[in-house]
Amino acid sequence: KAGVTQTPRYLIKTRGQQVTLSCSPISGHRSVSWYQQTPGQGLQFLFEYFSETQRNKGNFPGRFSGRQFSNSRSEMNVSTLELGDSALYLCASSLGPLGGDTQYFGPGTRLTVL
Amino acid sequence: QQQVKQSPQSLIVQKGGISIINCAYENTAFDYFPWYQQFPGKGPALLIAIRPDVSEKKEGRFTISFNKSAKQFSLHIMDSQPGDSATYFCAVMNSGYSTLTFGKGTMLLVSP
Hints:
The complex is a heterodimer of chains A (114) and B (112).
Chain A: E1 5-7, E2 10-13, E3 19-24, E4 31-38, E5 42-50, E6 53-57, E7 64-68, E8 74-78, E9 87-94, E10 104-105, E11 109-113
Parallel strand pairs in A: 2-11
Antiparallel strand pairs in A: 1-3, 3-8, 4-5, 4-9, 5-6, 7-8, 9-10, 9-11
Chain B: E1 4-7, E2 10-14, E3 19-25, E4 33-38, E5 45-50, E6 56-59, E7 62-67, E8 72-77, E9 86-93, E10 100-102, E11 106-111
Parallel strand pairs in B: 2-11
Antiparallel strand pairs in B: 1-3, 3-8, 4-5, 4-9, 6-7, 7-8, 9-10, 9-11
């Protein structure tokens, strides 16, 4: 089975712009979670989607949003980018509720905000 | 408030030695405790995980020890190899919420 794929792998944006990141989960997985990884804050949970519904949300401002499509693929969007949004954004997929807790991570999208 | 505290921040071990990384948590509602390994430029990869109904789980050279009463768990890497040099993260989860909360990570260097 193919693993979790994320596109693009690298992105450079300037302050004030917006960005959309994409994640394709492992085939058969219906839950997608997003995490932000920075040297200072470590790995922090952003949100989780299952069956096109946001089930959980972390402590991030409303500029961070996401969605999930009927094929379980997910996108996250960050509007009005700030320098502090520079990070590695990781997507993880899992089977979903009652399917086990194991989350499998993709390689991430490295976002640099100038 | 940090929900999971991981130590040490960094660790240097000689090849063939035992690497030990510790994590402590506060919330007794957590019921899933995985360890992830991350190499530079890669996403975290699940190494091994444990649930609170067992005190130890072993997979190859990797062992999790779990102390429910102390709210602590640790990763032991036996016969450490240079290829094990990576950053290791412990995490906790309440299965009802499906969100992982991670420790700050431990950079392990195994010297040849």
